[in-house]
Structures are given as C-alpha cells and as structure tokens.
Amino acid sequence: MSTHPELAELAALVPVLGLADASTLAPKSVLEACIFATVLIGFIGIIWKRNLMMKTLAMDVMSTGVIAFYVLVAARPGLFSPILTEGREVAYADPVPQAVILTAIVIGFSVQALMLVGVMKLSRDNPTLDTQEIERSHTP
C-alpha cells in the first residue's frame, strides 16, 4: 500500500478509467530491450540503406530510440511533475532532464529538416537518391 494519499487516489482511478494496472505493465528490462532494438534498427538503416530518404528516416528512428532511453533512465516512480501546489508535501521530479529532452527533440527535428532540404537539393541535381549512383556520377 502506498504511503502517499495522492497515489492511493490515483490507484483507485485506474480501474475506473480503464487503464492498465501497474503490475501488468512490461518490466523495465523489456522496455530497455525495445529501446535498444529501436536504436539498433536505426543504426542498421543508416549503414545499409542506399537511399538518402531512407537514411534520413533511419536517423530519426535512431534518435527517437536515444531519446526514449534517456526518458527511461530519468523516470522515477513516485515523483510528481514539478508544479507546486500549496499544502501538498510530495517529492517532485527534477525538471532539468525534461528540459534537456525537449531541447534534444527540437534539435533533432531541426537537423532532420535540414537533411531533408539537402536531399531535395541533391534530387534536383541528380535523377536518383541512391548514394552509390550519386558518388559514381560525381567521380572524375
């Protein structure tokens, strides 16, 4: 049983809202395995795919896995969002990792947009997006 009355109230709402019970959720190791698989799939896509669009998408998949890994590492059970409420004495989560992850998401989106602009420019000059074809056509 929880020592925090807020947690007990939230636990009572779980069956009412139709949410999954915490005991039936996947353990952390399964989540870690899925996240590492996502990172690995993105890395393999960057290495093996020859199409520049597919490489860009693979890079996005890999960055999503990295961000999910940081979220998983920073997650702590029993902590509340850092929104102060009078009369409530609970432990709050550190807002700095959340801000760092939001910044990483924005920077990743910007880098992906810049890469897509570069791919569009290459597609105007070359009839293909295949990296080996582009290298062959520009080799003296």
Would you give an account of this structure?
The mean pLDDT is 83. Helix 2 (28-48) runs antiparallel to helix 3. The chain is elongated, with a radius of gyration of 22 Å. The longest helix has 31 residues, at 95-125. It has 140 residues and is mainly alpha-helical. The protein has five helices and no strands.
Give a quick summary of the entry:
The chain has 140 residues and is mainly α.
List how many beta strands DSSP finds: 0
Radius of gyration: 22 Å
**Average pLDDT over all residues:** 83
How much helix is in the residues? 55-70%
Number of helices: 5
β content, as a range?
Answer: under 5%
Order of helices and strands: HHHHH
Structural class: mainly alpha
| Shape descriptor | elongated
- Runs in which pLDDT lies below 50 for 5 or more consecutive residues are none
Quote the distance from N terminus to C terminus: 73 Å
What about the largest sheet? none
Characteristics of this structure?
mainly alpha, single chain, 140 residues
SSE inventory with pairings:
Blueprint (H helix, E strand, L loop, with lengths): L4 H13 L10 H21 L3 H23 L20 H31 L5 H7 L3
Helix pairs in contact: 2-3, 3-4
